[in-house]
Sequence to fold (426 residues):
Amino acid sequence: MIPAAFDYKRASSAAEAISLVSQYGSDAKFLAGGHSLLPLMKLRLAQPAMLIDIGRVKDLSYIKDAGNHIAIGALTRHMDVETSKVLREHAPLLSHAAGHVGDAQVRHRGTIGGSIAHADPASDLPATTLALGATYVVQGPKGQREIAATKFYKGFLESDLAADEMLIEIRVPKMQGAGWSFQKFNRRAQDWAIVGVAAWRRKGEAGVALVNMGSTPILATSVATAIAKGASISDAAAMASNEADPQSDLNASTDYRKHLASVLVRRALEAASK
Amino acid sequence: MKVSITVNGKEHQSDVEPRTLLVHYIREVIGLTGTNVGCDTSSCGACTLHMNGEAVKSCTILAVQADGASVTTIEGLAKDGVMHPMQTAFMENHGLQCGYCTPGMVMAAIGLLNENPKPTEEQVRMGLEGNLCRCTGYHNIVKSVLAAASAK
Fold:
């Protein structure tokens, strides 16, 4: 399968990429690792007239300890998130989840910013950064702005990013020793999750987000509130789908997904409470 | 668009359409057909080759993204007629049946050992999660990779 024809420009900096996208408007798409966009283009589900290749903007590939949070450049590859010592120490839930994205070949190319900007509810890192209370930094023609992960996801493959804005950094609060667990239920090792759960817990505080349980990644606020009020893990897990609206598809029905979510949230909270 | 890509140590200058996939560039422009196209959706791993030393799926990379890169394909492994130790291990352990997945499987396996020289059996199985064998011959593939690791 070959994508429909498109024009191609290479940007060497975020500023150049934004100036290019301002010229070409909504017909243009940013290309980072390409592991979400190119499959859509090959299937002709996406036909951008212009690709702006940001894969060579090297100064957006970094992982830095920034005090109370870790700053991750948008073009940092999954493999680098997975193996980062800084993240393993301060945000182990994120580095672990990055190791479950696709397979090794995919993780050598795909980027954390690409995954988040693509806003696929079935992807692991949007939900994981949502559970961790991350903030995304985006840059546009008028400068930078910060968007809380809780405000970023607007619909299926839709985010708060404007057509001329580019995601440049992901800020993840340090986990401060919280217990955590990432549960991913799928049929083949490399597949997207049928349902996934990213969870952390620190005594009476918890954060839980769901993968593939609606048109966006879902923050399971009922579960976190129940834990904060002292509910048992199984009572809290029973509320897993309160905020979710899962679809039926070839892999699972809506009811099956809801059942799976409560089982996986229970397992995740048990593991995070050890 | 003009690209310069080093394939198995030799630099090639070509003019390609931006939509040309790396796997088609390797097979049809360079003429090296050892790298196979399987699922064509980055699931099966048949198109795995090395780009700047790392295993990647060439059906999901544009040739223009590989401009300036160094690519190694299955044809680039043998040196002076002597097979790469991973190829020898696959031959000795019957690590192939129909052979379709084999080039991608060998390239992924070498990439795996570059990152983890002494993997456990489970780490080999997980490390090859991106490569499917349509003969389901995984048992001897895993055996081959473990043999190559212990021969190092």
